[in-house]
Specification:
elongated; single chain; mainly beta; about 40% strand
């Protein structure tokens, strides 16, 4: 299996694709809470990224936010979601709205350099 890029995003395919027609979506490493299948990355017909169960159409589970393979420390939900807010920036939240768990990410956790780090390393003119 090799990683290919298609009209709806990245996917795994047989190395002889398209002669060999076996394909699967890119897994996020998180299991579906409804039937235990893998949650895979997909792209809607309008180009927006979403995440759904690999057992579609038998399982209709789908979410808009990227799942993080960590259990919620507050309510023990099976995974957390990566979200973004214009006010607070990126954060990680529980998949259950009633739980209310929220964890703000710092630039170091995101792997993004701060402006002070960029000028010190000489990457910015």
């Amino acid at each position: 299996m090799v990683v290919k890029r298609g009209r709806f995003g990245k996917f795994l395919a047989c190395s002889r694709y398209p002669e060999c027609s076996h394909t699967q979506g890119m897994s996020t490493g998180v299991l579906c809470p409804e039937d235990g299948g893998k949650i895979v990355e997909r792209r809607s017909r309008f180009g927006k990224m979403f995440y759904s169960c690999s057992n579609y159409p038998a399982c209709k589970f789908a979410i808009w936010y990227k799942p993080v393979p960590r259990a919620c420390p507050k309510c023990n939900a099976p995974f957390l979601l990566e979200k973004y807010s214009k006010k607070s920036g990126p954060y990680i939240a529980c998949m259950k709205k009633e739980c209310g768990y929220k964890e703000v990410q710092t630039p170091e956790e995101q792997g993004v350099k701060s402006p002070a780090q960029e000028t010190a390393s000489g990457t910015k003119p």
